[in-house]
Amino acid sequence: MDENQTASELKAAIAEAQALAREQVAAAWQLQVDRIREELESGWRERLDHIFEERFADVENRLHESLTASVDNRVRRSRSDVTDALNQTARRLRGAESREEWIRTVVEAASPHCAKAAIFGVTPKGLTIGDHPPVPLASAPAFGSAVESKDTVVAVGTPRELSQTISATLGDASEKKVYLFPVVARQNVVAVLYAEPGDRPVDVSAMELLASLAAASIEATTETVVVKSSSADLVRIAGAPAPPAAATPTWMDLAKPEQEQHLRAQRFARTRVAELLLHKARQVRNGRGSNNLYGVLKEEIEAGREAFRREFIETCPSMVDYFHLELQRTLARDNAVALGPEYPGPLPVGAVAGR
């Protein structure tokens, strides 16, 4: 094995381990999302260190003995850089003394993970940009869906989805998929983090983690937020902690207990898929590579489907198969083909418009 080939294999192995470790970090964070405030204060960094040690130990075992020392140095430095960056972002968000400092921190933290980022404050009247009249959520259905569901939304970046006003502010994204990450504080969506791909795709796991960090800090930071794109100056957007007006009457027609059942189902789906990423990382990697995630993880996926059917579909007529959606979005990275030819598809359920 010549030196160039060895160096190339080393570089590829490190890149593969880093990508998998990043997904595991996001999965570990998702499992703790209901206790995010406590995790920010203590305990979470040790969990991250454990994940990185576990992942990079796998890299070391796969490399030639002569490269062990070099890999060890690279791994430790990379692990330290990533965890330090997460910790620093959390500290800066909690300590921000102004809107500008808070949004600057969010945008800087988002920049490695997307081509363009923006923060939109949410008010009872919708989204307000500069001196423009409020943009009702009904005219920006993608944003309305993110606010209503309190979950990540992927949409085509057309004026029809984002509204004419917002599209004019951010620039034309009609040929792209854009990502909307709700920032939820005190059970209300107080802001939406917008992300747009460029030469590289949006890192959904990293952006969801950033939205969680932002949510945990927003109460103590500001009552207004601002928006910034890569091609424009800061544009002020009024924000408030009050919940917005409903954009989709069908969801609001549901009784409160049924809405809570939907939210519990979403949390269940995110948790089960996060556990697969965290504890079955090698199988996930193999399943993605062979476009056969279901075949590789059939026992675990079927157990999740059966639990979801029993706990949510059989008890709620309007239920949506959130477990299927989470499998496709997170496990398969929005590539339905990766689930495999034997995957049976979503469970037969009712539907709530706009969710």
Quickly describe the structure:
The protein has 355 residues and is of the alpha+beta class. 56% of the residues lie in helices and 11% in strands.
What does this protein look like?
With 355 residues, the protein is of the alpha+beta class. The chain has 3 domains: 93 residues, no CATH class; 135 residues, Beta-Lactamase (2-Layer Sandwich), CATH 3.30.450.40; 87 residues, no CATH class. It contains 15 helices and 6 strands. Strands 1-4-3-2 form a 4-stranded antiparallel beta sheet, sandwiched between helices. It has a two-stranded antiparallel ribbon with strand order 5-6. Helix 1 runs antiparallel to helix 3, helix 3 packs antiparallel against helix 4 and helix 4 packs parallel to helix 9. The longest helix has 29 residues.
* Class derived from helix and strand content: alpha+beta
Order of helices and strands: HHHHHEHEHHEEHEEHHHHHH
Number of domains: 3
Low-confidence stretches: 220-249, 351-355
**CATH architecture annotation name of the largest domain:** 2-Layer Sandwich
Count of DSSP E strands? 6
- Order of strands across the main sheet: 1-4-3-2
CATH third-tier fold name of the largest domain: Beta-Lactamase
Which CATH top level class of the largest domain fits? Answer: Alpha Beta
Separation, N- and C-terminal Cα atoms: 54 Å
Look at the structure and name the CATH superfamily of the largest domain. GAF domain
Strand residues, percent: 5-15%
**How would you sum up the global shape?**
globular
